[in-house]
Amino acid sequence: SPPPPPAASCILPPPPLLRLHVISSLARTPISLRCSAADSRSPSNREMAAQQDPRLAGIAASIRVIPDFPKAGIMFQDITTLLLDVKAFRDTIDLFVDRYKDKGISVVAGIEARGFIFGPPIALAIGAKFVPLRKPKKLPGEVISEEYSLEYGTDKIEMHVGAVEAGERALIVDDLIATGGTLNAAIRLLERVGVEVYECACLMELPELKGRERLGDKPLFVLVQSSVDAHDHH
Ligand SMILES: O=P(O)(O)OC[C@H]1O[C@H](OP(=O)(O)OP(=O)(O)O)[C@H](O)[C@@H]1O
Ligand SMILES: Nc1ncnc2[nH]cnc12
């Protein structure tokens, strides 16, 4: 007789186990997740955020940290576990939408790859178009590009010519700011074509890498700050 089919539990990862793994992964590492929204646009907002929106703790807890990925010494902040948590994902989008609706933003520019996850739902909800800023040789039309360095290498981002018009107001969205090189390049790309960058929005900031300083006067808003382990820098 044929072998019995595998049990469903072998095929589907059980969610409670995954959640335990997330918590133990955070607990094992000396990473502290500060989950107050950090806002460089106005000090009064920063004070308001210090009162701690109750949604931020759930968002912070849903992000998994994987040590030594993609190479030794990097504490990788993995947002794919946040995407598995419907409430945390929805709360993330809602917090950004509440902040950016009715601000005259006509463009949400999302940075490949993880800015493509958070940018489009924000764009739809605030009534803005979505413009992908992509890694080299991915966009088929005529492009303009900017080079940048990051925590583990160098890269370039590109944008389609004609995707935005001079005078438009843009929000730049990514999952994380580390050294700030990527966001710095994105700002340069948009400003080169006469677009006003209203703000940069990220889910996470690694404040010890001082990426915020590379953005000059450009406001940065993040939901979660994560302090990196000392061995992150080697
Ligand atoms: O502030 P920085 O030091 O510039 O680093 C931040 C960038 O690094 C990560 O992307 P990565 O380049 O790893 O690309 P991926 O999303 O395609 O994996 C992250 O999603 C940001 O885009
Ligand atoms: N530590 C990190 N985790 C996730 N994405 C990153 N991009 C740059 N540094 C990162």
Automatic annotation (TrEMBL):
Residues 93-221 form the Phosphoribosyltransferase domain. It is an enzyme of class 2 (transferase). GO terms for cellular component: cytosol. GO terms for biological process: adenine salvage; purine ribonucleoside salvage. The keyword Cytoplasm applies. Its main location: cytoplasm. Belongs to the purine/pyrimidine phosphoribosyltransferase family. This is adenine phosphoribosyltransferase. It comes from Linum trigynum.
